Amino acid sequence: MNALHQCISQYHPISIAAWEALTKALTRVEVPKNSFLVKEGMVCNKLYFLERGCLRGYYNLDGKEVTYWFGFENNFITSFYSFISRKPGIENIQVLEDSTLWGISSEALHQLFDQHHDLERLVRIINEQYYIRLEERLMAMQFKTARERYEQLLETSPHILQRIPLGQIASYLGISQETLSRIRSQV
Amino acid sequence: MNALHQCISQYHPISIAAWEALTKALTRVEVPKNSFLVKEGMVCNKLYFLERGCLRGYYNLDGKEVTYWFGFENNFITSFYSFISRKPGIENIQVLEDSTLWGISSEALHQLFDQHHDLERLVRIINEQYYIRLEERLMAMQFKTARERYEQLLETSPHILQRIPLGQIASYLGISQETLSRIRSQV
DNA sequence: TCTTTCTTTTGACAATTGTCAAAAAAGGAA
DNA sequence: TTCCTTTTTTGACAATTGTCAAAAGAAAGA
Predict the structure, then answer these.
(1) Which parts of the sequence belong to the Cyclic nucleotide-binding domain (chains A, B) (predicted)?
(2) Residue A157 burial (CB < 10 Å; 0-12/13-18/19+)?
């Protein structure tokens, strides 16, 4: 819970009242490795904060698993499209290591928004920061070679390489596992 | 102005008071074709609503212009990274057709947020919708071939093809102009 | 320890896409 | 119209990346 408070403060400090209301609405979730937090076809009604562990989001395309994000400590996690639109998504969220999360339902969050303006501001700000990250990823995907994307990942998130199988990283980078393996051997 | 009101209502209706405060803070901007709304190296301090015309965002990479978005009627326009972080960006926003915009400064917008909770909610919701769009684009970029991305663009935004030069569309799709030309001839 | 399973690497080849250069087509201005 | 500029297409070739199959290596369980 402390990790969440610290994480929030980096984005936008909130009032004590808002924090207390938030903590009351949060549920602690412990999930074991290889379980699923979200499965395709379901509505993801919860937003999570990942305190410990790691997850990945992927979907199935032509029989292949396509990874499009990883979540690590202090990340906010949800099946974004589904959570926002309240419709079933195509996304699976798989637990890659035993993890501890704090979850809040969409309804509870929106109630809190009504009561605590500063909480809604916090979420707006977090959204904006996540948008910027996504934009950077899109640019890399659009205009950089596989090797450049890999080297960028090495710089910004070296921890990914220690914790995630190569095939999933390759998928995340938008290349085949064989290509990534060859890139690594040619550094 | 009416177009903006209608556009806003589709995302989240706001109170009359909020709308009136917003309209007071807006400035009408007319920009001619080939002018620039934002140039790289400057802080983009304004958020715009595009009422009429069309724009593109691009940056320079190794001497090439890299287009990463187009804006059309009823789109919100800004150099997002710069606007949010209040730092200089690498982005240029070029006017592709004579355009009419409504602009608001970052300061004015944040003042409005303090006074009108529902306006901040509106922006949160718009941000979320734009996030989802970006996510879709990233997925296409990550896991679809050039041809598939082009066909997807044909379906979702056929108007782009009538209004934008091929080279810029190719850049937007992350492929060379020659490749796009060949894809088109082989449909 | 020895299996068994999962992950990573390597080889051979094919498909996709990029680059450079030139030609063709289209659009604007006088 | 004609000239000039911009945009689009085409050709030839190279570079990048993907696919399939097999081998090698690492990790996990009995």
Answers:
(1) 29-116
(2) middle
Q: How many CB pairs under 8 A join A and B?
A: 78
Taking the C-alpha atoms of residue A20 and residue A5, their distance in angstroms, rounded to an integer, is: 11
Domain of B19? 2-106
Give the C-alpha separation, B171 to B187, whole Å.
Answer: 20
The upper half-sphere exposure of residue A141, i.e. CA atoms within 13 Å in the direction of its Cβ, equals 29
- Tokens, residue B185: 């001839």
Q: Read off the pLDDT of each residue in A22-47 and give the average, rounded to a whole number.
A: 95
Q: What is the DSSP letter of B95?
A: E
Residue A102 domain flag: yes
**Within a domain: B153:** no
Residues A81-138 pLDDT 10s: 999 999 999 999 999 999 999 999 999 999 999 999 999 999 999 999 999 999 999 9
The CATH number given to whatever domain includes residue A24 is 2.60.120.10
Point out the residue among A61, A113, A138 whose CB comes nearest to the CB of B143.
A61
B36 pLDDT more than 90? yes
Nearest Cα to Cα of residue B49 among B11, B86, B17: B11
**Counting Cβ atoms within 10 Å, is residue A78 exposed (0-12), middle (13-18) or buried (19+)?**
buried
C-alpha B128: how far from chain center: 14
Number of domains in chain A: 1
Which nucleotides of chain D does any protein CB come within 7 A of? 6-12, 16-21
Does residue B180 sit within a domain? no
Per-residue CB contacts under 7 A with strand D, chain B residues 153-182: 165-167, 177-178, 180-182
Residues of A in contact with B131 (CB under 8 A): 80, 84, 127, 130-131, 134
Distance B146 CA to D27 C1' (A): 39
Q: Is A77 a domain residue?
A: yes
Mean pLDDT of B50-64: 91
Contacts for A31 with CB less than 8 Å, ≥ 6 apart: A37, A53, A95, A98, A99, A101
